[in-house]
Amino acid sequence: MKKMNKFKYLIPFFLAALPLAHGANAQNYPTRPIRFIVPFQPGAGSDITARTVAGKMGELLGQQVVVDNRPGASGNIGLEITQRAAPDGYTLVLMSATVSVSAAVQKMPFDLVRDFTPVAQMTSQPYCLTINAGIPAKSARDFIELIRARPNFYTYGSSGTAGLSHLSGALLATMAKVNWIHVPYKGGAPGITDMLGGQIHSQFATIISTSAHVKAGKLRWLAVSTLKRSSAVPDLPTLSEAALPGFDINGWYGMLAPAALPKPVLAKLNRAVLDALKAPDVGPRFALDGSEPVGSLSEDFAAHIKREIAKYAKVAKDAGLKLD
To answer: How do residues 226-251 score in pLDDT, each as one tens digit?
Structure first.
């Protein structure tokens, strides 16, 4: 009993020492390879982004940043792995804009705002309103007039229900006051295949997934989804300037870590991401996917995620989508 009382007085000293030890570990970070989870299939635009940034970060941090593809459940599998990981900076995950859409309109196995630490937004990317080249529309305004003239005839594919391409079509319908039919697929590629074959009429698609077909004259781009024109296709107007003022759908990728990440570790990771994005060969690599480097402070990325969730909740509500 006397021993217990003796140790009782030492407990406050042990507790006081814990933050100091934690800070020392953070100061030495990283001392081993970092796992960067990509919750999507290898070879997609997400891979271009993740592997480009991971390579540069590895050089800057002096430890390898290993990309680990963990696809499934619309990205939720990779996100859940990260959520459950220790908040020590050795497990990171790639987040796409589509995840913020899911958080806005569906029940998820985690709280996107509460259960993660935003590190930085890495890229920004437009979607292109793309149609089968056989459709007699040379502009976004032409195509909207065709949809208006034949309600519930024209179709648009998407990479899946509650994905960014789905919400893009829903926003167009709301803003243009037209009715057209959503056809969800398991990923963007099957929809593009059906668009090429004429089974569907259109799709909001990425530049990398459709550029070869546009060059071959099989598909036609009408406009980009972002407020600003894309440097990858500068001659292509925005939907906002061509037909629907204020239309803005922006694809992006960012980096998350588990919640409660120590601030010194977060600061090192944020700086490594920002410096990686400034490398002269990064912009050209991202351009292959129609993306542009962004870079942001952690707090700015956190605010961006909250804005995106609120925005897509409104888009879904205005479109009358019930996805839970």
So the answer is: 999 998 899 999 999 999 999 999 99
